[in-house]
């Protein structure tokens, strides 16, 4: 019988975006693909050593952290087997500017650099316009 941890680690290796839950699965995602995590939710009043390590690792990687009730975590994970932690993974890949600039190209390159965007609707309007103009890459300031 395959345990739940193995199932979620298989999903991680396939880089499937979405919700990842459980201490081992979230810790592995933080270790291997921290750039793919939008937010980590931890159960309110969590005192488990592994959950605290996950929080520390998320903070080191400047990942947004939220505290949630057991019910909210169950709702996010669509199961009550979340072990007190849920990560929201993204299919957006975050790269350093240097990595983007050093990629080989055969066509002209249009890079959009954004900073201090406060309204998400403005952000998506800017991205849609840039897409129409041929931009293939966007750079945002690091999360604070």
From TrEMBL:
One GO cellular component term noted in the UniProt record for this chain: cytosol
Which regions form coiled coils?
none
Superkingdom of the organism of origin: Bacteria
> SMART domains annotated for this entry?
SpoU_sub_bind
Task: Pinpoint the RNA 2-O ribose methyltransferase substrate binding domain residues.
Answer: 19-95
The record's section on Pfam families has: SpoU_sub_bind (PF08032)
Q: Under what name is this protein listed?
A: RNA 2-O ribose methyltransferase substrate binding domain-containing protein
The GO molecular function terms of this record are:
RNA methyltransferase activity
User: GO biological process: what's one of them?
Assistant: RNA processing
């Amino acid at each position: 019988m395959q345990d739940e941890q193995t199932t979620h680690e298989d999903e991680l290796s396939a880089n499937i975006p979405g919700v990842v839950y459980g201490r081992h699965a979230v810790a592995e995602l933080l270790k291997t693909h921290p750039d793919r995590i939008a937010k980590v939710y931890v159960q309110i009043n969590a005192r488990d050593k592994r959950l605290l390590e996950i929080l520390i690792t998320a903070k080191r990687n400047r990942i947004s952290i939220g505290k949630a009730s057991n019910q909210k975590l169950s709702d996010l994970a669509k199961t009550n087997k979340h072990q007190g932690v849920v990560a929201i993974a993204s299919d957006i890949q975050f790269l350093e500017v240097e990595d983007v600039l050093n990629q080989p190209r055969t066509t002209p390159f249009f890079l959009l650099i954004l900073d201090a965007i406060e309204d998400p609707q403005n952000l998506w309007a800017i991205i849609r316009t840039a897409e129409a103009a041929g931009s293939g890459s966007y750079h945002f300031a690091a999360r604070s």
